[in-house]
């Protein structure tokens, strides 16, 4: 079933300091709203049971980024979150989470807490969550987080520029941020709930990938709506097309609003059916969902024992 329609045409070059700048082709297919929503809903009806369900839930845990991004964050809270990421459950067969995500000031705390493990430390930057700061401040924010030890940077795009059609400005800022990241991987947050249409989400995805994003991410988790299956499907389709055109695999991270094990399995189905098994790894797919882990652990206990554990058996962070 084809989701995308005809190409919308290339963006023109822009003049900067008296010279013409040639950008990559930002054109992107239009999105059929009805078809993408129907396909996303249809893939959500797949029934996954027994050993396949258990394997899927464990895979989901290994893909989770546990996040604390509050004004009241403290070293103690970050350390507690890191311990939960390192060992989500006392059972030895439950994997560690993929990463913890914190503000730059607390990167050092997180790095010490996960030292020697496979858990990565991510940091938000570029004036998260608004993105409304000067480029110099944003890049300084990124460099500081990387110097403090961040393995991954989660940046936010300038939604005002995107909505105004200033695609070159969006591209330039992402490219500059990627350069400032150095060895760290860059996740580009589109804040899809503010972009308004699937077409803008599709174009923003393309711009981010052309500018060097290692991951594209739906949301900051600070506004509603955040991640949804149709939006995620649009972004996955963009990733697929980019990989086919360039040979470069870009990761995907839906974030915000994913709270149940059933939803997590739905997203894994979306990934498998759109991108294939190669993307079913934490290197190319993540969940940004701070409240998801406990529900997945409860579902795993139900599969093992036939009964739910009380929520009191899990930390509330």
Automatic annotation (TrEMBL):
SUPFAM superfamilies for the chain: Aldolase
Recorded catalytic activity of this chain's protein: 2-deoxy-D-ribose 5-phosphate = D-glyceraldehyde 3-phosphate + acetaldehyde
Cellular component terms (Gene Ontology): cytoplasm
EC numbers for this chain: 4.1.2.4
Domain of life the protein comes from: Bacteria
Keywords, alphabetical: Lyase, Schiff base
A biological process from GO: deoxyribonucleotide catabolic process
GO molecular function: deoxyribose-phosphate aldolase activity
Main EC class the enzyme belongs to: lyase
Pathway the protein takes part in: Carbohydrate degradation; 2-deoxy-D-ribose 1-phosphate degradation; D-glyceraldehyde 3-phosphate and acetaldehyde from 2-deoxy-alpha-D-ribose 1-phosphate: step 2/2
Similarity remark: Belongs to the DeoC/FbaB aldolase family. DeoC type 2 subfamily.
Protein name: Deoxyribose-phosphate aldolase
């Amino acid at each position: 079933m084809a989701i995308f329609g005809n190409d919308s045409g290339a963006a023109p070059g822009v003049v900067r300091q008296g010279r013409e700048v040639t950008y990559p082709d930002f054109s992107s297919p239009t999105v059929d709203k009805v078809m993408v929503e129907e396909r996303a809903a249809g893939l959500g009806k797949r029934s996954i049971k027994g050993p396949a369900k258990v394997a899927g839930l464990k895979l989901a845990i290994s893909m989770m980024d546990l996040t604390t991004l509050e004004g009241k964050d403290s070293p103690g809270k970050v350390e507690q979150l890191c311990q939960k990421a390192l060992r989500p459950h006392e059972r030895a067969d439950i994997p560690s989470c993929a990463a913890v995500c914190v503000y730059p000031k607390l990167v050092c705390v997180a790095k010490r807490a996960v030292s020697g493990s496979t858990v990565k430390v991510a940091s938000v930057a570029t004036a998260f969550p608004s993105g409304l700061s000067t480029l110099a401040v944003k890049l300084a924010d990124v460099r500081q987080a990387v110097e403090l030890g961040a393995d991954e940077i989660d940046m936010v795009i300038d939604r005002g520029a995107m909505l105004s059609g200033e695609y070159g400005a969006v591209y330039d800022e992402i490219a500059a941020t990627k350069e400032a990241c150095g060895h760290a991987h860059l996740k580009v947050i589109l804040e899809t709930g503010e972009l308004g249409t699937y077409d803008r989400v599709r174009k923003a995805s393309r711009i981010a990938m052309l500018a060097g994003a290692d991951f594209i991410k739906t949301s900051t988790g600070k506004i509603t709506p955040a991640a949804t299956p149709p939006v995620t499907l649009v972004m996955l389709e963009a990733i697929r097309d980019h990989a086919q055109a360039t040979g470069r695999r870009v990761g995907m991270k839906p974030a915000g609003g994913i709270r149940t094990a059933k939803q997590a399995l739905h997203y894994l189905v979306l990934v498998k059916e759109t991108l294939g098994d190669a993307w079913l790894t934490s290197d190319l797919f993540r969940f940004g969902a701070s409240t998801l882990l406990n529900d997945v652990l409860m579902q795993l206990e139900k599969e093992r024992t036939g009964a739910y554990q009380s929520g009191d058996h899990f930390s509330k962070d």
